[in-house]
């Protein structure tokens, strides 16, 4: 913050805000045991930390205060407050917003505090924008303390030393007006970009729906009738292929077993392969009709083997790469989203993924990511945790890329969503639900055609989406460029008639020195019990 205009100053934020009733610059909230539901309009509530977003206050993010507890009006949130989270993971600790409007009877929680810019010295919107400056965010981040990024704290004392640039008050207003006008133009462009992004999402959904209802390849079927198969023929071929592969695996096992006996039964005894399941009863007559030649099959009939992953905890230094749950998203596998794990007994090699495996999520904090699948396209150097399910697709008839797309949309996805259960904030599905999921199957030639068409059109959509994301990133960079100019005195011209900020601050410090310090009221044990309804 060098080379500022001569009428500007830099001061610590604790010297620029109004003192609270306690005589301190910051006031913290209260964290009683609240009800899980939001407070009604006529009820008192305590806001959650998620009510504080970067530059925006969400009053609906609150919990109702139980009737047995007395509210604390002294921590009720008011328009004009600047709220800041002071505890939580790194990305949520130190988030601030200016409260422009709010409903009544909402109190701060103990994981946040508030302050108010001194009205004669600092414009609230000027301060709010200054906090959003990238350099300011970096300074705030450096003030956080804690053992790891999942649980950090931002104390009043540390935050109170945050340096803030202070122009004359009239210039602050001019700066805010200029920022708002320029940001309004950027926001219009961003709104259009976000609309385009949403349209691409709808297009993707429509494309997948069309593919697995048979409409995407309707013309192809009309021109390639000789490549189609009757459902009965297709089912017989799949079952025959599975029987042949099982017999091959059984023969290999018998040879390995004979060798194991011949070698004096040293080492681990070869495990006999399990016959892949073939469901004998399934009724999907209530599902949407499919084109001629298509048939619904339970997913269990399509996978050679379905197996949960490793339950051992990662140790960050082992030889194996083990995926996080977040690595699997619908039709997207992040091969870099892994941790490390040590193999204590040499059994983890059995959990190494192979190219073409389909991997499902069993659990997730978000229902949108429960029971979704992605095809593994790695080099076989990864293993997977217990909250993921590996499905081996060993088939010349069934295309893994086709199954990846089919299981993430239409009737297949709807079937999974109806079976998601939520317990203690964690949503999940069972392996049995995934096995019973109906999947629309067509001839191998049509599967290949669908994969080719989807690849081309989804790739085009992805390129457009990347362009939109790039434009959104440029918009954020442009905002930061505007803020940087604003808080270095380059956005609006200075007016020599404006009273320097140094004179304002000196006057306020003089007034504070004359004001007697507020004494903190002592609360008796009985008063505390009464406040808590005890």
Please outline the major beta sheet: 4 strands, antiparallel
Count all strands and give the number.
27
The shape is elongated
The CATH C-level name of the domain at 276-442 is Alpha Beta
Report the end-to-end length measured between terminal Cα atoms.
52 Å
Radius of gyration, in Å, reads 31 Å
Q: What percent of residues adopt helix (DSSP H or I)?
A: 25-40%
Note the quaternary state here. Answer: single chain
CATH superfamily of the domain at 276-442: DNA methylase specificity domains
Q: What structural category arises from helix and sheet content?
A: alpha+beta
Known CATH architecture of the domain at 276-442: Alpha-Beta Complex
Percent of sequence in beta strands:
15-25%
The average pLDDT is 92
In the CATH scheme, what's the topology name of the domain at 276-442? Adenine-n6-DNA-methyltransferase TaqI, Chain A, domain 2
Query: Can you list the strand order of the major beta sheet?
Result: 2-11-7-9
Tell me the number of helical segments per DSSP (H or I, 4 or more residues long). Answer: 12
Q: Poorly predicted ranges (pLDDT <50, ≥5 residues)?
A: 527-534
